[in-house]
């Protein structure tokens, strides 16, 4: 009987190295794929920023992100290219966004508190009806809503874009806050009731202060969606002095017949700056809010 040679046996020092190399290679491949996908997704944005400082003749002729010639005059020309300075449209967008933001934070948090913490007859039925509204396309509601707002003479005002937010019409944010409120221990409510607190005091003094992640998530999504909204603002705001930034960007093509693309891209970059600032400032709250609202 032959004994196995020592050199034929696997080295105890080499096996762990081989096992550790495989996860590292997989991690490198995964990160390389994520970086490549990220570059593909961010390329249109980088191209728009580069095109905003290119001469009009080179925008579609040079697809490179490094322009051979620069023209920063598009920002000054685009700011005053329409009937009103572009700052007017930015202010109109800010008014609509702030109104929608306040409305969603107040009404959606109240509705979520009622569904998550209070017991009343028909709660399951009304909750189901609220969830069904998420399945209704917005295009089905545009015509009846426009007819209703036209009869009460709200067209060409900011009211159709702000007032519905105070009536808890965004079921997505209600559901998001319901999930967060349900993750909080009910002992908080019971302890507050023992101390003599009512429903309103529990809502304002106990639940809202610890609901900052959910409120921040609602605020960030409301800001981004309202700021970038085009269809609703196009329908209800037809006067030039009332138009918002997304609607004003469309007018660059009509006013210049597609000739001044540099001004259009420059004002598009200006319009995106508030979105980037809000996302960067509230990023940690956004991640924390999404993580905590998925606990239950």
Molecular structure report:
This protein is mostly helical and 296 residues long. It has one domain: Orthogonal Bundle (MetI-like fold), CATH 1.10.3720.10. 68% of the residues lie in helices and 0% in strands. It is built from 14 helices and no strands. The protein has helices at 14-51, 73-79, 86-117, 123-132, 138-151, 159-162, 171-183, 187-194, 199-207, 212-227, 231-236, 245-256, 261-281, 283-293. It is globular. It starts with 13 loop residues before the first helix and ends with a helix.
Compact summary:
This protein is an all-alpha fold and 296 residues long.
Keywords:
mainly alpha, MetI-like fold, transport, membrane
CATH superfamily: MetI-like
| CATH class descriptor | Mainly Alpha
Stretches where pLDDT falls below 50 for ≥5 residues? Answer: none
Query: Biggest β-sheet: count, sense, barrel?
Result: none
Helicity, as a percent range: 55-70%
Based on the structure given, which CATH architecture is correct?
A: Orthogonal Bundle
User: The CATH topology is what?
Assistant: MetI-like fold
Rg from alpha-carbon coordinates: 27 Å
Beta-strand portion reads under 5%
Order of helix and strand elements from N to C terminus: HHHHHHHHHHHHHH
Average of the residue pLDDT scores: 85
Number of domains: 1
Distance between the termini: 64 Å
The SS-based structural class is mainly alpha
Number of helices: 14
Number of strands: 0
Shape: globular
Describe the protein's topology.
Elements lengths: L13 H38 L21 H7 L6 H32 L5 H10 L5 H14 L7 H4 L8 H13 L3 H8 L4 H9 L4 H16 L3 H6 L8 H12 L4 H21 L1 H11 L3
